[in-house]
């Protein structure tokens, strides 16, 4: 931290010395330049000019009272009448006792009498005045976070801002540090241990800043730290120091610390934006397993611009029906031959400029920006209408599953909306399936259990999507009301080459069995995967092996074919020569 009894070496403040006598200017300049950058003026008029030029950066003015052209009293008055300029502390230089009292009354911070004292005394009084004024500017809120002793958010930004103004030439880095799923530390080891971990991290950050020589840090919120330091090219050591500190209370591998860095050589964007970008770099590690850091780069910048475009285009896209719902078939493989049993509705964006945009590029973005609810409701409506249309065209009801975002779970009207929707389309809620990703359950298990219960009692079937990618425990699963487990695709990908993944699949199938619900495997691409899954006892399969997500028109043909097959199968069965497919 930068609070100390002396100004920081790497943090030189700017001081203006105003005196008409050259020898006085030289002498003060010599003393002060040891710790400050010094500029000069030889009369009141020049002084005001200098103040105008450097007002953002000036930390203090040393002002002689008796000068030609415009004297010190007039300068003092002029500065005092200006809202901004009166924030710059002024020390009066004088040899007249009576003038001292008067200048203090006029708002001067202090005075130095001529002939001057020892250099140390001058430096101490100068520093004292600067500190007093700086503190007064930022004292409103509490300066320090009670737990870690680091600056609070407001104080941090105020200080960083001052730092920038005084040192526009220094290249600074904005850093955001964050724990991955810190709530788990609290849950597993208790809050007081969690507090201890946070304060140890703060110690680590302080240590790094000490080594770098200058910088400030803040606990921005619960488990997020903001650090502002002089630019460096490598952050590996920074992280190592913090982790070393942390290893005093916790095994390092158990901890997932992420750090995002934004280098700004030119200070081209505001402080807030710089930290926003550091935050983005930090977020880019969201799915990374271990500890690490990321630097905001051109690629991230381009992504940011791209994301901004997607957000901007959302309304038009929705109005112009650029969002298309595709359907991917699911097959029940329990019998002799696979039987089309339902479809998953998947969104796809046909952007007029970018072409097809994959959901992974916009779903998380829309979740973060409050748009997902509108998009999902659009998909839900399309899917419900589709069930109705196929029923009227083909005379069969094909159940469809839709994806429910983690954000939708917080929508208090979700059940009413869906109930109304199926009613409007004359479909049984039993044929309307809801896929909710496993990690939504771990994010807020209480809320989701309540919502899922409500949805199920309204007749909907709920499938847990991406099962195996999150952290659900067997305990939680048994308390959870669900109708199907959908295996995470990552397991399927490797079952053919890695028998460990096949073991995982078998385990998940056992869990499904134990819960009495069917297991669905998605992302099945090859014959080999299909055979392995069938042998392991998987119930339903979805994947390129059967079909990619396709348009409703193409899907119509699948339904027609399935109907014919079923018809054929029945006829064959009657004739006693049922064939395998
Ligand atoms: P998901 O729910 O796990 O959907 C399955 C994804 O796997 C889909 O990707 C699908 O096209 C893809 N897939 C299917 N079979 C195969 C295969 O054999 N191999 C491979 N490599 N991939 C396969 P898609 O359409 O890109 O969707 C990605 C994710 O976006 C979805 O993952 C889901 O989480 C989300 N999403 C899609 N549509 C919606 C929606 O309408 N609402 C919400 N909230 N999320 C959606
Ligand atoms: Ca899904
Ligand atoms: Ca999935």
What does this structure look like?
This protein has 581 residues and is α/β, with parallel strands linked by helices. The chain has 3 domains: 14-140, Rossmann fold (3-Layer(aba) Sandwich); 153-296, Alpha-Beta Plaits (2-Layer Sandwich); 323-566, EAL domain (TIM Barrel, Alpha-Beta Barrel), CATH 3.20.20. The protein is 48% helix and 20% strand. The chain is built from 21 helices and 19 strands. The chain has helices at residues 22-32, 44-54, 72-81, 97-105, 119-138, 153-166, 182-189, 191-212, 236-246, 271-283, 298-319, 359-368, 372-394, 414-424, 438-443, 445-457, 474-479, 489-494, 499-515, 527-536, 552-574, and strands spanning 14-18, 37-41, 58-64, 90-94, 110-113, 172-179, 215-221, 224-230, 257-264, 292-295, 323-332, 339-351, 355-357, 400-404, 432-437, 461-467, 484-487, 519-521, 540-542. The chain has an 8-stranded mixed beta barrel with strand order 11-12-14-15-16-17-18-19, surrounded by 4 helices. A 5-stranded parallel beta sheet has the order 2-1-3-4-5, with helices on both faces. Helix 2 runs parallel beside helix 3 and helix 8 (191-212) crosses helix 9. The chain binds ligand C2E and calcium ion (CA) (2 copies). Residues 328, 346-347, 358-360, 363, 372, 376, 379, 403, 405, 435, 465-466, 522-525, 543-544, 549 line the site of ligand C2E.
């Amino acid at each position: 931290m930068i609070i100390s009894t002396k100004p920081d070496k790497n943090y030189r403040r700017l001081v203006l010395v105003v005196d008409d006598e050259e020898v006085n200017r030289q002498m003060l300049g010599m003393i002060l330049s040891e710790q400050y950058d010094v500029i000069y003026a030889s009369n009141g008029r020049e002084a005001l000019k200098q103040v105008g030029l450097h007002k953002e950066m000036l930390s203090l003015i040393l002002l002689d009272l008796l000068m030609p052209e415009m004297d010190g009293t007039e300068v003092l008055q002029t500065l005092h009448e200006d809202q901004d300029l009166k924030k710059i502390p002024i020390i009066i230089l004088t040899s007249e006792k009576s003038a001292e009292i008067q200048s203090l009354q006029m708002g001067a911070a202090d005075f130095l009498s001529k002939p001057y004292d020892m250099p140390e005394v001058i430096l101490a009084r100068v520093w004292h005045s600067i500190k007093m004024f700086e503190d007064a500017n930022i004292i409103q809120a509490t300066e320090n976070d009670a737990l870690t002793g680091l600056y609070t958010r407001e104080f941090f930004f105020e200080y960083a801002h001052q730092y920038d103004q005084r040192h526009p030439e220094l290249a600074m880095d904005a850093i955001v540090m964050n724990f991955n799923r810190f709530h788990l530390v609290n849950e597993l080891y208790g809050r007081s241990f969690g507090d201890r971990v946070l304060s140890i991290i703060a110690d680590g950050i302080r240590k790094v800043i000490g080594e770098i020589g200058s910088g400030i840090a803040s606990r921005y919120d619960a488990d997020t730290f903001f650090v502002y330091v002089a630019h460096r090219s490598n952050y590996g050591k920074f992280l190592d120091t913090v982790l070393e500190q942390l290893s005093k209370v916790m095994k390092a591998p158990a901890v997932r610390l992420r750090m995002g860095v934004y280098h700004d050589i030119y200070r081209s964007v505001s402080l807030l934006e710089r930290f926003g970008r550091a935050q983005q770099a930090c977020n880019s590690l969201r799915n990374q397993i271990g500890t690490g850091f990321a630097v905001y780069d051109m690629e991230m910048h381009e992504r940011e611009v791209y994301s901004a475009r997607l957000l901007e285009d959302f309304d038009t896209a929705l109005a112009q029906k650029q969002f298309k719902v595709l359907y991917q078939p699911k097959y029940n493989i329990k019998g002799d031959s696979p039987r089309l049993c339902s479809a998953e509705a998947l969104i796809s964006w046909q952007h007029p400029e970018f072409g097809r945009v994959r959901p992974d590029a916009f779903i998380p973005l829309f979740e973060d920006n409050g748009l997902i609810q509108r998009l999902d409701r659009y998909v839900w409506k399309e899917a419900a209408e589709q069930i109705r249309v196929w029923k009227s065209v083909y005379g069969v009801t094909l159940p469809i599953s839709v994806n429910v975002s983690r954000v939708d779970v917080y929508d208090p009207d979700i059940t009413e909306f869906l109930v109304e929707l199926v009613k409007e389309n004359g479909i049984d809620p039993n044929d309307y399936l809801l896929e909710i990703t496993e990690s939504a359950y771990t994010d807020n298990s209480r809320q989701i259990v309540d919502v899922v219960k409500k949805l199920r009692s309204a007749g909907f079937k709920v499938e847990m999507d991406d099962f195996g990618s999150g952290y659900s425990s067997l305990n939680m699963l048994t308390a959870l009301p669900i109708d199907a487990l959908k295996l995470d695709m990552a397991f399927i990908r490797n079952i053919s080459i890695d028998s460990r993944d096949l073991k995982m699949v078998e385990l998940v199938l056992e869990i499904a069995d134990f819960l009495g619900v069917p297991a669905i495997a998605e992302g099945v691409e090859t014959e080999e995967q299909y055979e392995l899954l069938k042998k392991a006892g998987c119930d339903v399969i979805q994947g390129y092996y059967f079909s990619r997500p396709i348009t409703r028109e193409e899907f119509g043909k699948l339904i027609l074919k399935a109907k014919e097959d079923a018809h054929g199968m029945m006829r064959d069965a009657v004739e006693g020569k049922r064939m395998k497919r």
